[in-house]
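Input/output pair, single chain:
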Amino acid sequence: MDRFPHAADVDFHSPLDLSKAAAAVLDAEGRVCGWGVCAQRLLGHAPEDVLGRPAERLLAAPGQRVSPLCRADRPRGTVLDLCHRDGHTLRAAVTFSPLSHQGTAATVVVAAELETLRAWEAQLALLQGMTTESSVGLTIFDTDMKVVWGNASTDQELAGVAQYVGRPASDLFPEGEFISRHHPPDEDQVMEHVLTTGEPILGMHYRGRAPADPVREHVWSCSYHRLVDARGEPLGLFEESLDITDRYRAQERLSLLVRAGKRIGASLDVRRTAAELADVAVPQLADEVLVDLPPAVIEGRQPPTGSAPGHSLLRMHGRTPEEFRTSPVSYPPASPQAQSLATSRPVLDAGPAGDGSAARRTSLYVPLLAQDAVLGLATFRRSSNPDPFGPEEQTLAVELAERAAVGIDNARRYTSQHAAALVLQRSLLPQRLPEQSAVDVAYRYLPADSRVGVGGDWFDLIPLSGARVGLTVGDVVGHGVHAAATMGRLRATVRTLALLDLDPAELLTRLDGLVSVDAEPQGDDGLGDEALGVTCLYAIYDPVSGRCVWASAGHPPPVVADANGSVALSALAPGPPLGLGSLPYENVELSLSNGSVVALFTDGVVEDRRTDIDSGIDRLAHVLTWQRCPLEELCDRVMATLPPGPQADDATLLLFRTRRLNAGQVADLELPPDPAMVARARTDTERQLDSWGLSDLAFTAELVVSELVTNSIRYADGPVVLRLIRDRALLCEVSDNAHTAPHLRRARRDDEGGRGLFLVAQVSQRWGTRYTSSGKTIWAELAIP
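Output:
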């Protein structure tokens, strides 16, 4: 479809051209002696109506005369009102041209409608203006794509277009290039396309250096059109070019700000933010960007105040975090850098490049300001681009520096908070786990990537009565100080409840109730525990029986590798996460052979963004097939299977290998509920201690056994079981079917009883009561000398 359907109506011939103007011939007396077809068309008079008659009869105004114009010795032009045949008046531009010979014809008269002539003159003025005054460069090329002509704007850019006439287009801007990528990138290909197809190419952006200004880089918007003659044959093509350097750079600055808003400060990392500033500003604004920061800011501390402007900073090198390295730098007091830091204002400095060449380098120093604190200095440098930083570019650099300063300050605060949370979390986690006869233990804790934040994982090993041990892992969903503090409270609560000798399901039930209360926001601060995101697993292992009992509150079940090397996921149905209080928790009991390895873990060990939890559990199970390896080596093998890269969540692993106490370390004695059995209990205790080589403990142990058995026989109505366990300490346990726990009290002088438990507490290092499904057990632990 023709883009310009009315282009054929455009006629650049003058309305007074003899091929189209109304023409007549007058004799010396002013009578019409010749009348053209165009004259008849303009005024409507036929030749027979005007020939031989005075021309003044065609004039509409009474005062107008033709005779003086006919007697002139040179052509004269004027505006006359002419009478049309239908009676209306036509205002026309008329030219009288005298003839030099002495014949009948004396004057040739050419006339055209005045309005048509004025429109043509306007078109002519437009063409002349585009040729001599327009800022749009017009260049004509022939069919061989060689320069034919250029207007004044082109002549000015080329420092004289005449020297390029007859030369190919590639000679005009040898180092130029198209930066628009939606058309052929080569100018010869663009011209060839226009000449061949007749399809114009519009709005191509071209970047180069004009011969009249070879130092400064310009950008033009170029369009190409084919030129054809009256027969439609190609004559060549012409190029329109408009210098849009300022507008293009303004658009670049705007796009730079948009990109800066998306890129700078998104990482919450001081070094990355410095790299983001350099990545955004180079090369559009500067050839190089340096960011100098105090060590305190990099480490997450408050920036120094009251220091001299030239205090030591660390210069950041490289545009990506992988290229980062730091080097110390300081500024003399009189330097422009120190001036910028001292005044908190940008300073422009132009000087030698510093490499011995004659080139010059322009530097713009911009302080990094956040909340009226100077965080450092950003240096924008130009070496290949000789243009100084203009006012708009300085404003842009200041805005980029402000964005970077906010990002650096946020990153500094986050680094500080992350470090505090990490210190808090590590201080709340056990520094070392106590050695136990029941299990060998190894563990690993890998905090989340610093950009994510410290999580709320915890683990613990809790020595229990009867040589048993409690093991727990938990996870508070979320990151930061709040998650770490919540983790610390929950770990302490689990330890407290565990020391009450509660079974796993009962412990989780009580913990769930406490979390539900803590999860309620206090006032409007919304700082309740993240109850819906707290999971926990608690297990108790008994080395005497080899039984392990565990329960889960939304936590992944353990993976067990028995002594034969077979590995399986525990058949444990996790209950709801803590804080819901909707469903009960259930115990799962498993008999573990001596030397079994059990893995307790958080989801950071088996799950990440790239793999699902089942794949992670399979990896863990595969490693546990090497269960005969030392536990420390197994831990390293498990952590080595984690996907490379930043951790999205904390990863906590707790491995324990079970031990069974042999029969020679445990002695059981069942006694009927008869007070006379107290003496038998003392006798059997003395005999057993003698066989263990612990005769030195006989008196103390007999005292403890006597008091505990006496209490049980007095208050229970069934058999009493005495158990002695030789472990790291001597354990004395008395079990009965009563559910009432004895209480330690201070007896008065006249009381006949009430001193038994007081004596037990004084001679033992620990004592307590635990409840069972059939009653209770009172125990005391005596240190072995």
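Confidence is low (pLDDT under 50) at residues 523-531. The first strand starts at residue 22 and ends at 27.
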